[in-house]
Amino acid sequence: KGSVAVNQVVVKVDLFAYDDNDAESAAPVAMKTTLCVSEGNGPVNALANALRLALSDEYPQLRRIHLRDYKVDLLSTGGTSAATTRVTMDFADTDSDVTWRTVGAH
How far apart are CA 17 and CA 14, in angstroms? Predict the structure, then answer.
């Protein structure tokens, strides 16, 4: 009935802590680095899973956020591996069914 492409992603996330009592300082007072590996049905799903895994201890509300859809567009006409790529991702909160879209390009 078709094939499934399982992809694996490694992410490194640096979380910075700031002193809430010092409104004038923008410098972080601590940093926590997390490395996470995750798999998914394709590279975008694997990345979403790895980021959720890396961030969910600090932001437990991310456990209920799920990737609903994504689209990848090549913006350059050259068709090479150096083409500018735009990724559109649709997310949903499973508790409230609120949805939103984010777009990134590189």
Answer: 10
